[in-house]
Amino acid sequence: MKKIILSFLIVFLLTDISVGEEKKGFEGMVFIKGGCFEMGDQFGEGDSDEKPVHGVCVDDFYMGEHEVTVGEFREFVNETAYKTEAEKGDGCFYWTGSQLKMFRSIYWDNPDFSQTEKNPVTCVSWNDATEYIKWKKKKTGLNYRLPTEAEWEYAMREGGKSRRFAGFSNEGDLFLYANFCDVNCSFAWKTNDQNDGYQYTAAVKSYRPNSLGLYDMSGNVWEWVLDWYDKDYYNHSLGYNLTGPRSGKYRVLRGGSWSSRILFVRAAFRPKWGQIGLDTGFRLALDNKRKRGLWK
């Protein structure tokens, strides 16, 4: 009887410790139950690289409830003295209204518009995002990464539901969930009948989340995903836990931004990009696998 009680106590203590370990470092991460869904342009309004609609399955995973913020990125920079590619190069690309230009003086901490520590970091490249993730993994012992393109769309669609945008399907209510190019925007493609309250980025969690608890899956800043871009990838990408082509010239961005027209903040839109934009950021993902008390 004593052995049974002792065994029970050991299991209880180990379970309690594991729960504590799981919570530690998981602040701001949302558990996403895996499943299968129809990926791609379900509404017949997208580009050819959003077709054909095809079945994809993903395992359980975690995703950041919001995009990585200026404050979070600053902690990384302060600890590592890291210089972003924009700082080391020719700055950050920006659409002037008539052409795409690069400004040498613009980088993540000086984007030429007001940012608080709670706004999403921008002017970061795919490589900058992966360097941040390396630091985050070392600091926490958790195997952080960028979400795959399939995971991103699955989460945006609230577990693979038929969704045009994050959290809803009514275009007229977009301003409640997303920061995009509306009446506050200075570009010719702006939508004049909606007002999200911001000309540039908004602090994360300023809008309603989707039903999974994820904020800004539509708009605010474009988000880098893990995958290389291939315009024909959907023709042969059926399967489980897809990570995209093995190589390529460009990476994929998802979600649209404060400067995007409505069509660009759709769930299925998947532009290729290889540059550093004034509206490019990222969010974290994490596998749902335990090994020796850590996620590796």
Jot down its keywords.
296 residues; paralog of FGE (formylglycine-generating enzyme); 13 strands; disordered N terminus; disordered C terminus
Which SSEs are present, and which pair or pack?
Elements: H1 2-23, E1 29-32, E2 35-39, E3 54-58, E4 61-64, H2 70-80, H3 85-88, E5 92-95, E6 100-103, H4 126-140, E7 144-145, H5 149-156, E8 222-228, E9 239-240, E10 251-254, E11 272-273, E12 280-281, E13 285-287
Protein model, in words:
The chain has one domain (27-287): paralog of FGE (formylglycine-generating enzyme), CATH 3.90.1580.10. 20% of the residues lie in helices and 16% in strands. The chain has helices at residues 2-23, 70-80, 85-88, 126-140, 149-156, and strands spanning 29-32, 35-39, 54-58, 61-64, 92-95, 100-103, 144-145, 222-228, 239-240, 251-254, 272-273, 280-281, 285-287. The chain is globular and about 45 Å long.
CATH class: Alpha Beta
What do the pLDDT scores average to? Answer: 86
Give the distance, in angstroms, between the N- and C-terminal Cα atoms.
38 Å
Strand order of the largest sheet: 1-4-13-7
Write down the oligomeric state: single chain
Q: What is the N-to-C order of secondary-structure elements (H for helix, E for strand)?
A: HEEEEHHEEHEHEEEEEE
H/I helix tally: 5
Number of strands: 13
| Major sheet size, sense and barrel closure | 4 strands, antiparallel
Strand residue percentage:
15-25%
